[in-house]
Amino acid sequence: MTLEEDLQRRDLTINAMAESVDGGGLFDPFRGRDDLDARLLRHVSPAFDEDPVRVLRVARFAAKLGALGFRVAHATHRLMKDMVARGDMTHVTRERFWRELSGALGTVAPWRFFEVLHRCGALTALLPTLDRQMGQAGGHAESPDSMPMAALKRVCAVSTAPADRLAAALFDSIDSIDAVDVLLADLRADRDSAAALRRLVSVRPFLADAAAGDPGAVYELLRGWRGFDPSVDVVVTARIAAAIIDRPVLAEVVAAVLPAARAVDVARLAGSGVSGAGLGVAIADARRRAIGDAISRAGLLT
């Protein structure tokens, strides 16, 4: 195989350049340097359409280089749409999709991965629940953020953990713990991602009221997140949830009530003669009162 034949097998022109080992200059038969300067992700040759995984790799490069202004070339976008229309994405294994997705989640602009796949139609086959939440694809042009992508951007500002970022992207697509398990099993997702999404979905009914300072809702959040256990950093989870629902005050509420909620003397209540189910009720009532008092003192009622 010649050097040019080797470079022709690459996905993108910006990766199809070579430099002489003796410093003799750049070998660039597919004008990758021009595309590098123009910040374009362009396919090397029509043979691009022989492997549907290349669609995922283009999306991952868009996420990795998105902060530098890189975008998918129009011709490459059209070729990707043609591949999708032909049904090529059905040949992508779930394991390979997860590998590319998890790699994209660790980049500086992971929302670009989903946007590129959504705009070319590939997300319909790969992650239909999210595709529906992102709405009508607006073609190749930039468009306003969908709710899932806006949530993902907010979470990216507070967490670099891929599990938190995936949870942000998928939160609006999931309405039950059972749905979490089904979707993430289909994605072949790792345990951290499953745990992060389960934590958030399990307390969905209480998030808005907790952000408004309702003591009962805050209690349910802490109970669902094992927040009464001092070894659990529940404030971090609260920051992620606050970013997803775009209510920063939620994290303030949790941080403000946590010391008081954890200070409830369970041993004293147990020694007061209450036992069994009655003890559980007494502990819960005491924690709710402590939470309500802490919210009032902090002036966080809305």
Give your account of this protein's structure.
- The chain has 302 residues and is mainly α.
- Among the domains are: 106 residues, Hydrophobic Seed Protein (Orthogonal Bundle), CATH 1.10.110.30; 96 residues, no CATH class.
- 61% of the residues lie in helices and 3% in strands.
- The chain has a two-stranded antiparallel ribbon with strand order 1-2. It has a two-stranded parallel ribbon with strand order 3-4.
- Strand 3, helix 3 and strand 4 form a beta-alpha-beta unit.
- It is elongated, with a radius of gyration of 25 Å.
- The model has no long low-confidence stretch (mean pLDDT 92).
Give me a quick take on this structure.
By secondary structure, this protein is mainly alpha-helical.
Total number of beta strands = 4
Order of helices and strands: HEEHEHEHHHHHHHHHHHHHHH
What gross morphology would you assign? elongated
In the sheet with the most strands, the strands line up as 1-2
CATH architecture level-2 label of the domain at 39-144: Orthogonal Bundle
Rg over CA atoms, rounded to whole Å, is: 25 Å
Classified by CATH, the class of the domain at 39-144 is Mainly Alpha
Share of residues in helices? 55-70%
| Tally of helical segments | 18
Q: Compute the average pLDDT.
A: 92
| Biggest pleated sheet | 2 strands, antiparallel
Content of β-strand = under 5%
CATH topology group of the domain at 39-144: Hydrophobic Seed Protein
User: What structural class do you assign from the helix and strand content?
Assistant: mainly alpha
In whole angstroms, the N-to-C terminal distance is 70 Å
Low-confidence stretches: none
